[in-house]
Amino acid sequence: MTHIFITGGTGFIGTQTLEQLSREDHTVSVLVRSKARWEQIRKQLGWLSGDSQRETSVGIERFSPVIGDLSLPGFGLSKTDMASVLTADVIIHAGGPMDIRIGESEARAVFLQAAEELLNLASQIQTSKGLQHFIHIVGFKSPFTDDNFHNPAPIIASLEQESPYERMKFLADLRIRQGAMQLSFPLSVVHPSVLIGNSEHGDTPQTGGLGILVQATARRLMSITPGGNSHWLPLFHINHAAEFISALAKESNPVSQTYYLLNEKKQSPSIMELVSGIAKELRVSKPLGAISPKLLSKVLGSPLGQKIGIPKESLDFIVDVNQAYPLTAAQDMQRKYGLEHVVNSSIMPYTISDLDFRLVHSHPQADGYIRGKRGPLATLERVGSDKGKPPILFVHGTLSGADCLLPLAEQFPESSVCLVDLPGFGRSPYHHAADVIEGHIESLVQAIRSFETPVTLVGHSLGGLLAAHAYARVPEQIHRLHLLQPALHSAARRFRSARINEAALRMLRAASLRKQLLAQSCFTDISDIPPAYVTYVLAELQSPRVRKTTAETLSALTRAESFSLQQPDALLREASILWGTQDRACQLPERFRSARTVEIAAAHHFPISHPTLTAQLLRQQDL
Known about the structure:
- By secondary structure, this protein is an alpha/beta fold.
- The protein is built from 24 helices and 21 strands.
- The strands form 5 sheets. It has an 8-stranded mixed beta sheet, with helices on both faces.
- This is Alpha/beta fold hydrolase.
């Protein structure tokens, strides 16, 4: 059994690496700043789901935190923790912030000083028992190689023009290479390119890198792209990088080697093509031309550039199409272990949407839920205590998202729950279908079909309408159907123009949003409106993708054909409806009054304002 000491275990690369290492027979000591942060990571990885069988199966009892800090002497470890770390066979150094704007002193502490501390640790292990392997995660732009680090002076001189972040990171690469040679332990230097989300669902917690490009495009600052078709941005999936690092940790006789993790140029879009794809997903105009990266760097470094807010250091990741990187060593390892390494182009819309979501929601919280994907929809999912109960699928309405229904989902701890973001909302990419409502319906149907067993379908407002449509198409996949204040008749005619809707949504502020919510009978009074809901909606509407989708959806809801339901008789027999009687803007159509209907003295958004009461009523309806 290999004992691994890992730094950066709570970071973007580190958490994914922990997930991969948990599948192997290792003991792992993880450097973390606090026990609280360690508990957050365990929740993020689904290790605190309450499923003791799963926790045992992944072997997480073999993972233990050591409390410390990269920037402190001896990492600030206690004597007990240091004694434990000194028994490690493998060191994985993935620590250090992803902040290209940090200053000189901080960069020196977290990169160069940390490298010295790790070499001191490695020296003690090598002397006492022999260090099996040191794995250092750096970055593909480091100028040091296996061939040139013996004569570093010219390269060090050239680094004076680099930012403190890049310079100290690269000097740490050099220092660890030198130390490995002096101490004679095997060193693997791993150079990931710009890391993007999971290859299955696109989840990208690290908003630097590609996120800078996504944010600039959302702000309509990418009409002129850096480099155009003559440059590209090398990308690599985070889970593929973690699998590679985990494979290195399994090597019984490792050799010192440098590995570049990049998607090959022939399989990658140019910057022009990449930004055009981002613009499509964000629903803004595509770029019109290109500018030299050197000229743009000067502009971004000027007072004008500082007002724009795009760091000139972000251009360091862009590569000339003629620049090549040695990929043979990494490809040999990938073949040896059967590892995936090609960027999944079909998942890029999800990566872009996830980054867009994270950039407008500064601190998205969904503790205890795992990010996933059902059909074309991004999801938040949680396993319940009763595996025999059908999973509950929650579908939100307009001016909402999966996160808004989390308080309602929390009322069903015994059930496995899945909350979807509809296309163009939350974390889901837009469907780009010609018919807005039809695209939403078909996306939901595909999500329902992804379940192995029938689901209990719960839809609120627009989500209720879509759930009714979905039931008509896949009744065999739906165990129970519950409609919460479903939008079953046309919206007010003032929403007919998508363009006017979008302009109005752009101008919304907290006070005007509350006023509109009360005017539309979404809530009964100001005290009824959860503050977190207002914060969520205003953040969502900062995204041009969500704003345009919301505007077009509201417009589509003014058309009668959106409400033409198939098999209405079957729907009325099977559905239960919860209806808020304080909703003055909407009425339950007469033809639906024969359905099992429970009235509640609340307004349109009662699942958001009264989640506990809503859950009680749903249970009474056999949920």
